[in-house]
Write a structure and sequence with these properties.
The structure is a single chain. With 297 residues, the protein is mostly helical. It folds into 2 domains: 2-218, Rhomboid-like (Rhomboid-like fold); 244-295, no CATH class. The chain has helices at 2-15, 18-39, 47-50, 59-64, 68-71, 79-100, 105-126, 138-152, 168-185, 190-209, 214-227, 232-241, 247-277, 284-295, and strands spanning 55-56, 134-135, 157-160, 164-167. Helix 7 (105-126) crosses helix 10.
Length: 297
């Protein structure tokens, strides 16, 4: 029974899109921290425990605890904040995944959050306001995805229950302002991190229009890290099933490379057109190509 449940969870995670996996990871980290606190006798999150997973404005702490650059991205301030963050991640993450591909969601989330963390560390130290404080990074990572979605398809209409159809850029502008105003008025240093997340969200879509492909290297590194956790018998099995072609293999590789280059060029042209004239200006064939591209892994 237990094995079956574990198997079902693994199948669900593998079959789900990146937004689903990020939501599950955020929930898993929250449960993990909660259990650690209970084991240590705390029935609420203790800063003395969670600080080992958070970014600090003290750069020496961050350099001696390098994992915090990643772990803080999956921690929210409280349960209400977590629920709200997951709702926003599901909403905007789905738009990014549908428009430019599911494999683009994780790079925006991670790199946007890390850029926000670096912005936070630099600003607090340059302005002389660093005081060994700690911040979470989930809000920043999700804000980066929200901004990326608005830059990508600013005129995308979303039907709200009360207000009717509202363009994505208006929704994101309101969301960004609410985040910044709340952080600034509550004297929360996460304000600087949010600025970094906003800038990276815009820059990421701009980089795609310029064919810089920031996500390619990121995804390759991420896949290599994941492969380290693969079971050895799976690797052996895959190796035994592989088929090698000698002379014709070169031809097929060159053909695939050319197809990939042509595919990327078409995608870049469509994304550039969306940025200049909006999603609605695309022809039916271009919309279909973009849809198929979003499903291409």
């Amino acid at each position: 029974m237990q094995v079956s449940i574990i198997h079902d969870i693994k199948v669900f995670i593998k079959s789900g899109n990146m937004v689903t996996k990020l939501i599950l990871l955020n929930l898993a980290v929250t449960v993990f921290l909660f259990l650690i606190n209970i084991v240590l006798g705390n029935f609420a999150f203790s800063n003395e425990i969670t600080k080992y997973f958070l970014i600090s404005d003290n750069y020496y702490w961050d350099l001696t605890h390098p994992w915090v650059f990643i772990t803080h991205l999956f921690i929210s301030n409280n349960i209400i904040d977590l629920i709200w963050n997951m709702f926003i991640l599901y909403w905007f993450g789905a738009i990014v995944g549908d428009m430019i591909g599911d494999d683009k969601v994780l790079p925006v989330y991670i790199m946007g959050g890390v850029f926000g963390a670096l912005t936070y560390i630099i600003f607090t130290n340059v302005f002389g306001i660093a005081g060994f404080r700690y911040i979470t990074g989930c809000n920043t990572a999700i804000l980066s995805i929200a901004v990326a979605s608005a830059v990508l398809v600013p005129n995308y209409n979303i039907r709200l229950f009360i207000f009717g159809n509202v363009t994505l850029k208006i929704i994101v502008i309101i969301y960004v302002l609410l985040q910044l105003v709340y952080a600034y008025t509550s004297f929360n240093d996460i304000f600087y991190s949010l600025i970094g997340g906003i800038v990276f969200g815009w820059f990421y879509i701009y980089s795609i229009s310029k064919s810089w492909r920031l996500d390619s290297k990121f995804n390759n590194v991420f896949k290599n890290i994941i492969s380290l956790f693969s079971f050895s018998y799976n690797r052996k099995q895959n190796k035994s099933l592989s088929v090698k072609y000698k002379s014709k293999g070169v031809f097929y590789k060159e053909k695939n490379d050319k197809s990939e280059i042509e595919f990327n060029k078409n995608l870049d042209d469509i994304l550039k057109k969306i940025k200049e004239t909006g999603y609605d200006s695309l022809s039916d064939s271009e919309k279909e190509f973009l849809f198929l591209a979003s499903k291409k892994q």
